[in-house]
Amino acid sequence: MPKLNENYLQLKDSYLFSEIAHRTAAYTEKHPDKPVIRLGIGDVTRPLCECAIKALHESVDEMGQAATFKGYGPEQGYAKTRDAIAAYYKRNGVDVDADAIFISDGAKSDTGNITELFGHDNVILIPDPVYPVYVDSNTMCGNKVTYISGNADNDFLPMPDHSQHVDVIYICSPNNPTGACYNYEQLKEWVDYALENEAVILYDSAYEAFISDPELPRSIYAIEGARKCAIEFCSLSKTAGFTGTRCGYTVVPKELVFTSSDGREMSLNTMWNRRQSTKYNGTSYIVQNAAAAIFSEEGIKECQENLNYYKKNAKVIADTLTELQIPFYGGIHSPYIWFECPNGMDSWTCFDYLLENIQVVGTPGAGFGENGKNYFRLTSFGTYESTVEAMNRFKKLFAK
Ligand SMILES: Cc1ncc(COP(=O)(O)O)c(C=O)c1O
């Protein structure tokens, strides 16, 4: 009998979305005449932009001709795609070398797989609440996690505790689920703390494209010193509607060098390159060509139309909650709106209350950590019409 990875026994059941689906299905079966509005989805709904479609078609045609057919590509990604991403960083005022960029099939794989570069006796700091992949992927390999609390007192933007040493720090900004977004000063404090502690920051920037205020950093590398202490994960999922097309990228700067227990220098860039070359055979040529098109100036402009659509929905939600005096976070630089459950409800009670009374489905905050248990996440990925209708129902339900 094989000995199994019993760390899996330590995982908490991920019943969040199945439970939401189950409760929603039970309700609709009982009340088929009452249409439910879903503002819980973390998936995009707008179609791919024109330049992505054009690049996809052209690449498919190339694959159909012997002269232009492509087999295995470089595991790190094609130079064209890496260069296009480096140029995108440059246009946003950040220097990132193309050879620090690794193209992937999305940020979920990379944020999950990155644990392989680290030993098992690190102090690993993970915010609560946050995207559950960080905790689960560490649990799967037997790592112990230390939580840092995001809460109303720190506007869900926890800051370092300078009296405590940590080795690995997860940061997600703009945050899923809270929508909160760090400013320069706050990120600088994290970078300075990491440098002082010789720690590494794992910076998840999957929602950077939602940041429209030029005063807010869209990359950790906008902060001086970050290339010596941070890995950045990005995704085309929300930027370009690639949740089904699949493409992301991870930046591992060459400056990220640490010392092994026997005094040898270890480069995280070299290690990640080795890891990817061993276990990953690259993102498809077709998808990478579409990604390169996305990061052209024209491509980014086209994507912005979809982002603006979602941002308009977010504003409808944010304005309604403001009017109803329900405290909330996010909704400006993020597709997520994180509100405090009214009348002291816990998040699952709030879920049932909204479903029963106004047929609006969202995501209970408890699914993102202990600190989410009295909060609720709505997303702006629905249609404009359904978002407006959901908010009209909110107004009727919560008007004082
Ligand atoms: C914070 C965060 N990181 C990463 C991902 C995963 O992105 P991808 O679709 O690129 O795997 C998500 C998706 O919901 C997310 O919310």
Model description:
Keywords: Aminotransferase, Pyridoxal phosphate, Transferase. InterPro entries: Aminotransferase_I/II_large, DapL/ALD1, PyrdxlP-dep_Trfase, PyrdxlP-dep_Trfase_major, PyrdxlP-dep_Trfase_small. It is an enzyme of class 2 (transferase). One of its GO terms (biological process) is lysine biosynthetic process via diaminopimelate, diaminopimelate-aminotransferase pathway. This protein is an alpha/beta fold. The chain has 2 domains: 7-47 and 300-398, Aspartate Aminotransferase, domain 1 (Alpha-Beta Complex); 50-298, Type I PLP-dependent aspartate aminotransferase-like (Major domain) (Aspartate Aminotransferase, domain 2, 3-Layer(aba) Sandwich). It has 12 helices and 15 strands. The chain has helices spanning 16-30, 50-63, 79-91, 107-113, 133-140, 184-197, 236-239, 268-279, 285-294, 297-323, 347-358, 384-398, and strands at residues 37-38, 101-104, 124-128, 145-149, 168-172, 200-204, 230-235, 248-251, 257-259, 265-267, 328-330, 336-340, 360-361, 363-364, 375-379. The strands form 4 sheets. A 7-stranded mixed sheet has the order 2-8-7-6-5-3-4, sandwiched between helices. Strands 11-12-15-14 form a 4-stranded antiparallel sheet. Strands 1-13 form a two-stranded parallel ribbon. The chain is globular. The model has no long low-confidence stretch (mean pLDDT 96). Pyridoxal-5'-phosphate binds next to helix 4.
